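Morning - magnesium ion inputs below, output right after.
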Amino acid sequence: FAKEKGKNNYQFFTVDLHRDLSDKMMLEREMHKAIDEQQFYLEYQPQIDMKTNKIIGTEALLRWNHPKIGLISPADFIPLAEETGLIIPIGSWVLETACAQNKAWQEAGFPPVRMSVNVSLRQFMQQHFVEKVEHILEQTGLAPEWLDLEITESMTADVSHAQKVLSCLREIGIHVSIDDFGTGYSSLSYLGKFPITKLKIDQSFVRDLSEDHQAIVKTIIDLARNLNMKVIAEGVESQEQARLLLEMNCTEAQGYLYARPLSALDMTKKLSG
Ligand code: C2E
Ligand code: MG
Ligand code: MG
Ligand code: MG
C-alpha cells in the first residue's frame, strides 16, 4: 500500500504482475472503473533548453490514484492496459486531457510550450490512429505544432505501417519523438526513413555516465544532429550530468535536477515564472 514518504510526496504501490495473477485480475477490474470514476490524472514534467534554462516543453505522465490501493505506478498498469486493450480509451483520455491543458496554458497567455504525450504500441497500431489524434486536436483547439507524440523503437518494426502513420502525423504538423532511445533492438536504418523530430536519450545512459555511456550518449547526440533531429536527455538528476551533457552538445534535458513531474497547478506556477 502506498505510504507517505519524506522527500517524494508519494510512493507507488508495486505489484509483481507476473507472479500474482489475482492482483492482475483485480487491477484489470479496477482499471475498467478508473476512467469513469476519475481516478486517473496527469502530471507534467518540464523539458528544459540547456542553454537558456527555459521550459520549452512538458511531458504528460499518467497517474492512477486508486481509492483503496493508493497510487499505482504506470510501469505496473500500462503493460496490463496494453494487454487488455484498455490502453485505447485510457490513451485517448490522456491525449485529450494533455492537449486541453496545453491549450488552456496558451489561452492564459503563458509562453507556449510543446506537450509530449506517450503513445503505446496498441494505440499506434490501431486503425484510424491519425484521425483520432486529429480529432482531439480539433476538439481541444490545440495547434498540431504544440503536440509531440513519444513512440518507442519497437513501434517501427512494422516499417510500412510506421512510415504511413508517421508521415501523416508530420504532414499535419505533429511532432514525433523516439522515447528511451538506445534501448530497443531495432536497426538504425529506420531513422532515415521516418520523419522524426527528436531522440530522447534513455535515462539508463544518463544515470551512470561512465566512459562507455558517455561514448553512447555522444554518439546519439551526433546522430541526431547529422539527421537534423533534436535531442533530449532523460533522467538528468545532477549538475555533473548536466555539465557533461552540455559538453557533449546536448541541447535539451528533462529530469529531477530541473523538476519532478508536477501537478497541473504546480506546472502552471512554473510556467508563470
Ligand atoms: P517515460 O516516457 O520514459 O517517462 C519518463 C519516466 O522517468 C517517468 O516515470 C518520469 O517520472 C521518470 N523520470 C523523470 N525524470 C527522472 C529522473 O531524473 N530520475 C528518475 N529516476 N526518473 C525520472 P513514470 O512517470 O513512472 O512513467 C514510467 C513510464 O510509463 C514512462 O516512461 C512511459 O513509458 C509510461 N507512461 C507514463 N505515462 C504514460 C501514458 O500516458 N501513456 C503511455 N502509453 N505510457 C505512459
Ligand atoms: Mg516518455
Ligand atoms: Mg523514456
Ligand atoms: Mg517509456
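Note: Residues 87-107 form the longest helix (21 residues).

O.
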